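Internal ticket - ligand job 821, zinc ion:
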Amino acid sequence: MTPGFSVRVAFPPPLPDRLDYGIPETLIEKVRPGARVEAPLGNRYVVGVALSVVECEDPQKLRPLTAVLDDSPALPEDLLDLLSWLSRYYRASFGEALRAALPPGGLSAERLHIALDSLGRSLLDGLPLPALAHLSSRERNRLLRLLSALPRTGETPLRTAFRNANRVDRETLRDWEARGFLRLRDREPPGARRLRVARLYPAVSAEDAREALSRSPRQEELFRLVLDAPGKRRAALAEKDPNRARAVRELLKKGLLRVEEETVRRSPLSDHRLACERTKEPPKLRPGQERALGPLREAIRDGRNETFLLYGPPGSGKTEVYLHAAEEALAKGGNVLFIVPEIALTPQFAGRVSSRFGDEVALWHSGLSAGERYDEWRRMRRGQARLVVGARMAALAPLGRLGLIVVDEEQDGSYKSEDRPRYQARDVAVMRGKLCGCPVLLGSATPSVESVANVRLGRYTELTLPRPDRLKPPHVRLIDMKKPRPSTRSLLGSELVLAMEKRLERREQTILFLNRRGFAPYLLCRACRQPVECPGCSLTLTYHRTTGRMLCHACGARHPYPERCPACGADDLHLVGVGTQRLEDELDLTFPEARIARLDRDAVTGKGKLSELLDNFSSGLHDILVGTQMVTKGHDFPNVTLVGVLDADQSLHIPDFRSAERTFQLLTQVAGRAGRREIAGEVLIQTYQPDHYVLQAVQAHDPEAFYRRELRQRRGLYPPHRRLCLVRLEGPDEDRTLAAAGEIALQLSGIPRTSHPGVSILGPSRPLVFRLRNRFRALVLVKAETAARLQRFLDEAERRKIFESGSDVRVSLDVDPFSMV
Ligand code: ADP
Ligand code: ZN
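stdout (structure tokens):
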């Protein structure tokens, strides 16, 4: 038996992860890694992605591929390598990694459909057709067989047609389509906007038409209109004009024209109300920006992988450096990925990129509709989009030939996926840069402790941006809330109230930051001292005044406001604590003349609401903006001269090794909102721990002091000095879940440390919300000194099947966990 070739094909879940297929001779030239292929599975045909073609002793034993669907790979090859790394590193299946990179509807979204066209129908009706003259009799037979396999009206998937007739190669199909026998169409996902257009057959010329149209000026006019339409020999049809409609019917009959529905490109950028025209001249970089860009520019020109950390305070011009670097990469022929934390929260960023680069920008994030994502995917594949702006999943965008990857706000927690695969988009971007040999630019005003450590270890190159001279750093004051205050009931201290009054007088704006949405976070029973909890979760319910409901911030369930205490039945329930809604009320009383806006997840419902709120505040419609961490994100409010932080300690108390880091980042960012003007802004931080090193570093504008201290605190315990894997367990029964966690911890501890030095196991433990949607959760923590050692240890544990639970307890691995609770 002659050896041949086989191909490994990957499928997204729930299909099997990877399977091998034989390659029929007709397809051997076409199968390429990254191309979508059709393959038999059971008694169906499914679509997957070809991975690698290998020589194979006995390909006859394998089922053969039935079709290759792409002429050019749907996924660039370096992305396949990346997905393969991702699935191993984050302990997911390849199919799960693949799914994260695909548009909704997965691989089949672009399946070809086939339908009869007018000449094909005439042929089936037995009309004599001059068009058949060029076809050989063999070809004529093939054509007839295929056409008779098609329904008279409507379209059918190409593969169904092929099952009923012989397979015909793509070139021949395109030729028959050009001659007007049949039509091929990409099946569109639902919800696409359609437009009726008239289109000339590619093979029809003006000569062909001259005679047929000589006596009908109206038809000739229509024909000309379509023929001369710029570009594609097509024109949109006005629905209403009856004369035009008659002319269209005549031209259809004469076989000169066809009418079809076309999908109008859905532009997610226009939904964000962002202009797509290019703006005039980009600003010239300041000397400080030039200096920072220098080393990066070299790496871009050399097409060399290197990871940079661009570190500069808010407003120092980081985004401008990204945009110049992107221009550099585009000029070199490279494509550019921009990854931002949550695109819905940072519409301004996408706006700036698109106003600089216009139509070449595609958006890629989970907020897009299925249709939008499909369109953007296709534009990337066709090379129409050379820059992609998107959130976490943009790290896996199917954009080839990368010349630069930018990750803005690299410290942001939203880069970590909390679903399988649990990847960290910033780290994936860094790895992607390595695999495809392009520079990666991480930017932040408050970098993660990990990235700061990577700079110190020489893994990343630091680029710093100074604060522009015209921007004065804000004056930060810590207000010690332990000192007795006249009014203890109010959340607003007298210093803050005074400072706000001054702003109101001067017609300047204030931002108040309180990281707790809703009205009140507790409903407490004074009789039994129990707070009202979510029935499904171990968390108190937050009262939301706007809906009058009790909301669980863990599972999202809404409950009615209880009449009596669910625990003891007493009629003595009281709201305790302050969320943004209650603060808004309190402000109304304190400053009756002020115009107040609130910005949190409850206030931002639906597309465009956020931009509207920000625009309104920015244009001076409000004096005070109250909000959660949404107010800390990169907006530019030149008239804000005061920022108040109401409960700086709250986030310090979360039992997580990152709580100090997160607090430092939040406070620095929110303080930065007051530093965007020539006159120095003022920041008042109310705290019970004014001596805490986080607050001291924020006050002194001394991030170095914070990073030094934080790195020291974590030494020997936590990242970046240790690498972690959190084993997450979840089950319907509390005892069984904890017992399973105990068993896993025990078995992990049983792996000999001689071959795994420095690995330690902690737990089992219960997370803060140990009950979520009536499922009980437990944790086991694995620590190792390096990522490689952690991976080797996990490999060993998987070989020993330690994570395979036999009971109803689900076990999942979270490598490099972000949230520890
Ligand atoms: P960051 O991303 O660090 O917050 P930006 O790039 O948004 O900073 O810059 C802050 C402001 O300064 C923006 O309004 C931007 O347009 C402006 N800016 C940045 N660089 C320049 C420059 N070289 N010349 C003029 N304006 C600039
Ligand atoms: Zn709940």
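Auto-summary: The first strand starts at residue 4 and ends at 10. The two ends are 59 Å apart (CA to CA).
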